[in-house]
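During the reporting period the student researcher (J.K.) took over the structure-prediction task from the postdoctoral fellow and processed the backlog of single-chain submissions. One of the processed entries is reproduced below for the supervisory committee.
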Amino acid sequence: MTTLSERISQSAFDGSRLRVVLLLDLHEGAQQRFLEAYEHLRNQVASVPGHITDQLCQSIENPSQWLITSEWESAPPFLAWVNSEEHVKMVQPLHSCVRDTRSLRFSVLRETSNVAAHTPEPPKGRLQANPRVGDGVVRHALTFTVKPGSEDKVAEILAGYTSPEARVDDTTRLRRTSLFLHGNRVVRAVEVQGDLVAALRHISRQPEVRAVEEAINPYLEQDRDLSDPNSARVFFTRAALPAVHHVAANGKQPKGVRRHALYYPAKEGCGMALARMLARQDELAADDPACPIAGSTIFQRDDIVVRLIDLTVPLDADPTLSLGVRGSRKTAVLRRLLDPEAAGGLSTDRELASFLTRSDMALITDRRASDA
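J.K. obtained the following structure tokens:
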């Protein structure tokens, strides 16, 4: 029998401590400049709520290879910080020193300490209770806004490109890309089997993708210059919309499944709480064999919350289920977490159906690899 923990392949909400590993390859001669920038940065990071400790390490074999590890009480405070505009500005001085980076994030599952050597302090946060099994797929999204009035043109461009080669290398493949539009906001969700960073780099180098990116440049609200590595880095850092939770129902995905994306306009400062509530609702739904939700992925950054759901029934068949608010008083909880101007009323079936319609993002394109 599949347990709930086995169906949750990704979650930022289990309360376990988080270990973040950042691998860096510095430009030749940039070591001292990097160290000075890091010294200034670490004093600011130390005051961030939820931060426990961090270490800066240098390779004993190659002085250009560095490693930063940090530990956090749980994932939410780290995600709130790393996705903030403050963080984007804070790390700017490091970019000119770094040739390449790779960020890895892990829940702490087990730990061993030498209790004979010292008396350990009471641990902050808790260990992950059980290993997650998952399906080997990494999920990520990008979001950005386009100039009002350009939505139809942008949708035409994004729907018409030639799909890039799915195979990245011997261990990594692109499985699926889904593009949605809500007002003037674009969301591009990708599923990767293997190494997400390798896949994103592969995508960015494909001529057909580069042509699309250049074609939409004039319509973006945030200017960018893809020929300038720093401009491109800042744009895609701000556009990152991380997956914070994924749950799938039992067994193989049934036939007749249709993908939808719902946009939830969170009240200021409530994005993480809203994502957590929706995650819990989807966990409960996955425990019901009759539930028509075959899978759910929640993406969240600041107060932007997007929930991607694969349904075996029409979206409007059960608005409370589709919105993730089935159960006692869940609609009231959702209303407290939403921007009141955008949410409107949620007290009646008609109001819920109206909100579902407004939240439903328009599908631009949904492409799968042939073997996905």
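The committee noted the following: The chain has a mean pLDDT of 89.
J.K. will present the remaining backlog at the next meeting.
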